[in-house]
Amino acid sequence: MNDASFTNIRSLLVAVAKALNLINPDLENHHERTAYFSYFIGRQLGLETEELHTIVYAALLHDIGSIILEERVSVEQIESNAREYARIGADMIRDLPDFEEIAAVIEYCQTDWETLAEAAARLDCLQGARYAAIVHLGDFVSTCLNPDRRVLSQVPRICRLVEQHRGTEFMPEAVDALLQMKDIEMIWLDAAHNPNFLLVFTGDFHRISLQKAAELTRLMSRIIDYRSAFTAMHSAGVAASARELARLAGMNEEDCLKMEIAGNLHDVGKLVVPRAILEKNGKLDDEEFSIIREHPYYTRLILMDMDGFEDIANWAGFHHEKLSGKGYPFHLGREDLDLGSRIMAVADIFSAITEDRPYRKGMPREKVIEVLRENAQREAIDAELVELLIAHYDEVDAARAALSHAAGRRYYDSMAARE
Fold first, then answer.
1. CATH code, 67
2. Which of 110, 328, 346, 347 is deepest in the core (most CB within 10 A)?
3. End-to-end Cα separation, the chain, in angstroms
4. Whether the Cβ atoms of residue 88 and residue 418 lie closer than 8 Å to each other
């Protein structure tokens, strides 16, 4: 399997930023703007390309810890608890491969410079502190900038605010770098209206393998699942079930890995669904169900723009389609749904009814088989795949249980640490 350059980290992290925007539309482009300002501050300071990449990655993810919030809030409200969210965000990604440095930057990117510089000198980690300080300033400037007003007229006020806190809240060198940029109109206008133009400067960097992509998409699955105890294990369980079922169905190793990625990401569109609906213990009313029906559309919308994710976007986005054509939201039928899409539909139902939720235990084996066969009989899911799963029930369920329970432990340990 020659997958040495399947996709790039930038594509994945831009998708994460889009996913965060789904949770809170008021944050739209905030993470991208933070990355934009942080990049140019770092470049003004003469940082090397790899250092700039670390800063961009951390800036795109800096508010990831805020996904635990119960309700949609403003950027200013998030900033009021920024240190706590930074710590949570760092904990979420610290165990991902090659993300240790990025996690450290996120952990300290909401710390004032006086505190940070003192701690960095004591711990001999000044370079990482500088990266965190750059993201901290980029975040502040992004928060201050109102893209709905005339942009250039805001620059003097923002620069005065920053300069007032030079050496206390903000690293002096970073402040000086920002002030050197104040007369470059393009930077401010792009940051407000086209922050994704940053990609022109960063290029197609950090190509990664399919295996590495599968590992990193677990980050996005955590964003999805951490929103609620009701879904804390679901994405991991679907990913494991889908990969195992794909293997049994004869897919090659590359496509099996893609199935795992699709499972990790199949519910990313659910970030648009309010938590009260996700956690409702009872039948949804018509309005609530209309909101639920939107989520596969948003899943596919986000994944379609990711480099190399064409098949994955379809497999993940079509998981509520039915062979009868009565699924949602695309209303595709048997002739439109390939093997990967059919596997994902089976894996989603299987994981949902076997995993434990706060309001009920997972179904026993006999009941699971009954439900799967009923769905196959109604042409909701593929009957041959259902029988394949039943024939290898123990293998598929063991794979599901191992990953979903690990995800559940991570979630509940994280909740306990915050109490």
1. 1.10.3210.10
2. 347
3. 45
4. yes
